[in-house]
Amino acid sequence: MAAPNPNHVQIVIPEHHAQQNQCNFLKERDFDYSQRAQWLRAAVLGANDGLVSIASLMMGVGAVREDAKSMVLTGFAGLFAGACSMAIGEFVSVYSQLDIEIAQMKREKRVTNNGQNAEEMEKEKLPNPWQAAMASALAFSLGAFVPLLAAAFIANYKVRLGVVVAAVTLALVAFGGVGAVMGGTPVARSCPRVVVGGWMAMAITFGLTKLLGSSGLEM
Predict the structure, then answer these.
(1) At a CB cut-off of 8 Å and minimum separation 6, what does 115 contact?
(2) Among 75, 79, 173, 182, fewest CB within 10 Å belongs to which?
(3) Which pTM was predicted?
(4) H or E, element range at 178
(5) Which residues contact 56 (CB under 8 A, 6 or more apart)?
(6) From CA 35, how far away is CA 111, in angstroms rounded?
(7) 2: buried, middle or exposed (CB in 10 Å: 19+, 13-18, 0-12)?
(8) Residue 30 — pLDDT band, cuts 50, 70, 90?
(9) Range with lowest mean pLDDT among 30-39, 128-137, 204-213
(10) Are 161 and 144 in contact (CB under 8 A)?
(11) Nearest to 187 by CA among 205, 208, 172
C-alpha cells in the first residue's frame, strides 16, 4: 500500500453547505421566468419604445430645424401621446387576453385532488391589465426623458445631435441588459440587437425627414 502524501491537502465541504448549494442551484434552474413575462414585457418594451420613438422624432425635427426649442417641444408632445397610446393599447390587449383565459378556465372548470377549485388557483396567475398599462406608460415616459434631457441644455446644433445619439445608445445598452438579465436570456445577444435597432430608427427618420426638407416641401 502506498504511503500517504504529506503534501496532499484534503478539503472537506460540510454536508449542509453542499445541500444548500444544491438547493440554490435547483431553485435557480426551476425558476419560471415566464411569471415575469407580462409586466417585464410591458416595462422593457415601453422603455425601449419611449427611448427610440422620442429620440427618432427629435432627430427627425433636428434634421430640418436647428433650434433646441423645436426638438424639445416635439419630444414632449411625442411623450404625452406615446405614453397614453402605450397605456391604452396595453390595457386593451391584456384585458382581451384576460377575458380569453377566464372563458377558457370556465370551460375547463374542474376540482383538484385536494378539493380546491382549479379556477381559483389559476386566477392568481392571470395578467393584470391595470398593472400592464401603468408599467407600459411609466416605462415609455422613462425612456422618453433620456433624449429630452440630453437635448434640453445644449445650444450647439451638431453637439446636441451627437449627445442625443450617445445618450440614447447608452440607455439602449442599459435597457437591453436589464431586460436580458431579468428575463434569463444572454446579455451579449440582446444588447447589440436593441442598439442596432435604435440606430436604424434614428438614422432612417433623420434621413427621410432631411430628404423631405431638402425637396422644397413647404411647411
Answers:
(1) none
(2) 182
(3) 0.71
(4) helix 157-183
(5) 201, 202, 204, 205, 206
(6) 23
(7) exposed
(8) very low
(9) 30-39
(10) no
(11) 172
